[in-house]
Design brief:
Blueprint lengths: L14 H7 L35 E8 L2 E4 L2 E5 L4 E8 L3 E5 L4 E5 L5 E6 L4 E7 L5 E7 L1
Parallel strand pairs: 1-4, 3-9
Antiparallel strand pairs: 1-2, 4-7, 5-6, 5-8, 8-9
Bound molecules: copper (II) ion.
Copper (II) ion binds next to loops.
Keywords: Signal
InterPro entries: Cupredoxin (IPR008972)
Protein name: Cupredoxin-like domain-containing protein
Length: 141
């Protein structure tokens, strides 16, 4: 685990500042956190019956020889879902979850895990900063 808290879900107001510091190549134009200010009112009229399980969702990708395998592409995630993102790489790098602005150092051969709650609707790229590789896109909604 990184020594610094990479980003608390409650600290949404600081996202743009922190993202600028990480020197990201591209930001997600699809991300519109301003629309998420009242998520509960958008939940509709059918509350508890269709609620997703609380067991969480595990997303795993592996990077080897510059190729990404596993849960690549666009991964759908329900809003409010507990997500564990596991990344294994054969080279050192830094993984970055856009929008949520979570980062983790990758040590070659050692899985890095990022656990968070998908509270922000939108499509967010998960990227390797050194390689500039997009591992997958989280589609939260
Ligand atoms: Cu990034």
């Amino acid at each position: 685990m990184p020594l610094r808290p990479a980003g608390l879900p409650a600290a949404l107001v600081g996202l743009t500042l922190t993202a600028a510091l990480t020197g990201c190549a591209g930001t997600d134009s699809a991300a519109s956190p301003s629309t998420a200010s009242t998520p509960s009112s958008a939940a509709g009229t059918a509350p508890a019956s269709a609620a997703p399980a609380t067991s969480g969702q595990r997303i795993e990708v592996t990077v080897a020889g510059g190729q990404v395998s596993g849960d690549t592409g666009r991964v759908p995630v329900p809003v409010g879902q507990q997500v564990t993102l596991a990344v294994t790489s054969d080279v050192a790098d830094e993984v970055h979850v856009h929008g949520y602005d979570l980062t983790a150092e990758l040590v070659p051969g050692e899985p890095a895990e990022l656990a968070f709650t998908a509270t922000i609707p939108g499509v967010f790229e998960v990227e390797l900063h050194d390689a500039g590789t997009v591992l997958l896109s989280l589609q939260v909604g």
